[in-house]
Structure formats: structure tokens, C-alpha cells
Amino acid sequence: MLKYVNSGIVFQEIPDEVTLSINISNCPCRCPGCHSKYLWADTGEPLTTDVLDQFIRDYGTDITCVCFMGGDAEPEYVNELALYIHREHPRYKVAWYSGRIRIPSVVHKSDFDYIKVGPYIAHLGSLKERTTNQRLYKRTNEDDFIDITSRFWK
């Protein structure tokens, strides 16, 4: 079962969204230079649908998107949670920040509104750098994904 360590409202992870960011532990990627090494450990509280419901009750109309930050140890469960949000709380968009190069085949990309892929590689920089290997994709109305990474560049 996935566990989360903390959460918070963020404004820069997903362009044009007020996002509830949920930091998931037990990250298998362990990128050198990671800014969130505390998420490598298997720690925190279970991330369940009841927890998601409570977050949504707490934040209500203050948020427009829920973003799973990690979850690469159990991508199929991240997908289940995305489906749950879309089914039970359809007003919210769903995003996933994965440290993997590719989304695993057990994940249905169309169940997400945004997906970020790519491990952090220090010399290439984060999403803010034009040289980054990381990419953020947005689902279109036709269920295609477009690369919106350039929205982060100055």
C-alpha cells in the first residue's frame, strides 16, 4: 500500500491549477541529487480513498487538482486512486509526477489529466530548465497528450 508523508497546496507544479500535492514515500527511483530524499524511506500513513475524501472535504473549492508526487513503487495503485477521484470527485483534475522514464503499461494515461515523467538528473536541471530531461504532459479533449514543459521556462 502506498503511504504519504505530507501534503500541501501548491501553485507551480501544475500550470493554471491550484494543486493539492501529496508526497508519497518509498520512492524506488532514488535519483542522485534528489531534493526529497526523505521520500525514499517507507514511512508515513496509508494513502487510501478515505484519506483522499478527507483531503477533498478539507480543501473543497480551494483546489482544482490533486497531484500524486511519486508512487512509482505501486503505479497500478496510483492509477486506481486517479480513477477514484475522477469517479467520485469529477470536478478535480488528477496529476502524477513519476520519476520513471516511461509510464508503466499497467497505467492508463487517459485516467490522468497531467503526467510528469523523468528522473531528476542534476546536470540537466528541473522542469524550470530548458535542458531538462523531465517532461510534463497535459491530456487534451481528444485523449492525446501534449508536452507543456515549456510553460515552466523563463
Question: How would you portray this structure in words?
Answer:
The structure is a single chain. The mean pLDDT is 95. The chain has 2 helices and 8 strands, in the order βββαβαββββ. Strand 4 (65-69), helix 2 (75-88) and strand 5 (93-97) form a beta-alpha-beta unit. It has an 8-stranded mixed beta sheet, with helices on one face. The N and C termini lie far apart (38 Å). The chain is globular and about 40 Å long. By secondary structure, the chain is α/β, with parallel strands linked by helices.
- E-strand count: 8
Helical content (DSSP H or I, runs of 4+): 10-25%
Distance between the termini: 38 Å
Round the Cα radius of gyration to an integer and report it: 15 Å
Q: What is the string of SSEs from the N terminus onward?
A: EEEHEHEEEE
Structural class by sheet pairing and helices: alpha/beta
Average pLDDT level = 95
Keywords:
8-stranded mixed β-sheet, alpha/beta, 2 helices, 25% strand, 154 residues
Secondary-structure map:
Layout: E1 3-10, E2 19-24, E3 45-46, H1 49-59, E4 65-69, H2 75-88, E5 93-97, E6 114-117, E7 135-139, E8 145-147
Parallel strand pairs: 2-4, 4-5, 5-6
Antiparallel strand pairs: 1-2, 1-3, 6-7, 7-8
